[in-house]
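Friendly challenge for the regulars: who can give me the structure tokens for this chain first? No prize, just bragging rights.
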Amino acid sequence: MPRPLHAPRPAWPLQHVSWLAAAAAVGAALGVALGNLSGQTHLGAALCAALATLLAAPLLSRVAARVAQAPVSGRASRPTAETLSQTRDRIIALIADTAPGAVVLFSDVGTIHYSNPVARDLFFDGQVPEGQNFIRLVSAASAPLREALLGETDRFFTLEVEGRRESYHLARRTFSMDGEPLTLLVVKYMTREIHRREIEVLKRVVRVISHEVNNSLAPISSLMHSARMTATKLGHVEKYQRMFDTIDERASHLRGFLEGYAALARLPKPQLRETDFAPLLAQVSTLYPEVQLPAVPSLVGWFDRAQIEQVLINLIKNALEAGSLASEIELRVATSSDGSSEIDVLDRGPGFTTESLQNALVPLYTTKPHGSGMGLALSREIVEAHRGSLDVSNRPEGGAWIRVHLAGRVVPALADQSRSRLTLTRG
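First reply, four minutes later:
Bragging rights claimed.
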């Protein structure tokens, strides 16, 4: 009788299956919670509560014990306390390491027991902080950050990081495990999410306003045409010409004013692809021949050429309207092998005031008498749709400096945290 090609695997005992099912249920419940709460401001609190429950729950220890007791090579082995602890730690790390927020677990005296990759990048310059004292590290931080991290409640907080206002949500849970009091913190970077929500609200408002105003402008234009025809027939066209021209001019201004906002509302998704800078810089040179342009980079970028061209036009136009001479506006471009790019637009205008630095990227904000406040806002929306960032600052020797960073083909998982670090491990 021929032997089977594969011997049947021994079935796991029913109780092992039930405990593994329980572990899977815990993981699935957490996964559903994270999926449903993705993008919500209370995600950090939900994750914090879920992790704290897992850490403290007797179920986790029992699941770890059953997993540790699973047959190996057909023989059962009795788990040791060390084995159970290692299994539990692996389960916890598996969940927390993939969390979107920074997770830090420390004792009541401050000893750090665990930090996930996001926390290491956000707080510890990528270093492994386990064993260090979290309370001592935070005590040396700035007052606003210290107050947020050592407070007793969940909270939103906003800090200035490298000249930018960045927002975060912090969730805190305390519990006991093996008789030791522990604190679990989850900090989530919220700036981009808050901005995305603001833009979505603005887009909805713009759609409604544009619809209503256009419904009024259409009959106004029609009535103006009829009025001109009637005035011509009656021989009074010269008498009413000034009024007709004024109405036409204001209607055209309103239509153009709304068009800037409508462009934000209907901004298409960028078509990302390998893009040579040569045609882009050639077009900028045609439109603004006096602007100082860089040599064409040898490496290609990864972006939508038409949209980034519009960004550069907006930024150069802003510089000119701010009072800079075209010959004093300079473009700089740097590219990397992964397709990521940095584009700087520098001018010699008056630069930004303290107030305008804080509000320059806010839709509708403008310091120009006839400005719409949409140039920089639209540019930032385009850049962030490219998974990039747009920052405004002043040149040390006078003038404005706008930096556009465009992500490459692959965006690091910690991109947002990397540019918004709340470093505790150095002064």
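The chain is about 50% helix and 15% strand. Confidence is low (pLDDT under 50) at residues 1-41, 58-64. Your move, everyone else.
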